[in-house]
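Reviewer 2 asked us to include a model.

Predict the structure of this chain.
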Amino acid sequence: MASLAACTSTGSAVACDATPSGSVSDAIKVSGDFGTKPDVTIDFPTDAPETQRSVVIKGDGQTAVAGDTVNVEFTLFNGATGKELTATEYGETPTTAFPVDESQFLVGIVKTMECSQVGSRVVGVIPPDDSFAGAGSADLGVGENDDIVFVVDIVSIDPPVEPALPKADGEDQPATEGFPTVVLADDGTPTITIPATDPPADLKIAQLKIGTGAEVQAGDDVVVHYVGVNWNTGVTFDSSWARGEPATFNTNAVIAGFTAALVGQTVGSQVIVIIPPDQGYGAAGSPPDIGGTDTLVFVVDILGIA
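Predicted model (structure tokens):
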């Protein structure tokens, strides 16, 4: 949520230096079940000398630590007036994702979430120094000297995202008869040589390398390096390698043959796919380099899942 962005100024038993509770956070009365909107009573105005964090419902799931992305339901109050400022929908819409990162979100919000276990409901009372840096927030209705009170349910924690590979690093596979030949430069850039034969009429996929990473699922955003060559003309019509950086595609947002080449493969793999027109750009083609009857060849390095 942009209004809570920072201002300038894997297991349940991990060790974590939690922000301690205090008399101000302990005095906030919160009732209701986890995952439902809480009833909150605030003896306002609050005056926390520093961020205080009290656990109302203690969960037993994974502990949120710095660098995690935490999915939460929350209600935010003005500590000076007790007024509710904003809240999520509590089960009616997807949860809100917050990075546990003080460079991205208000310091006191992060202190409240950090060290909280999945299944927990936690109250943070946050003074101006750890919220809007003494400037307040006109959008939210927070004065420059107002505390904020953050009541948060820790619903889940996203698994860590592995950094993308620079090139496919899987185990080399034998060449498949009838496919174009592929030679790799030291940096991984493929050179594709089309055979002097007619292209196959059907979609063909072969693995040049098999990686050991996560399997690509339908709907994933996948980080890839790729080269595309027109079988009929021999023209290289697209190359992320030539641009000097990989591309990220959703598997549902590319031509059908490219989707088929990605889904079910593993990170670290390199795949070659021969795509007939009906699995590519169809009778319209993609001018100026791809005609409506042209067959396409892609070599794709699967570098990561975003």
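The chain has two domains: 2-157, 171-305. Residues 7-13 have pLDDT under 50 and may be disordered. We have added this to the supplementary material.
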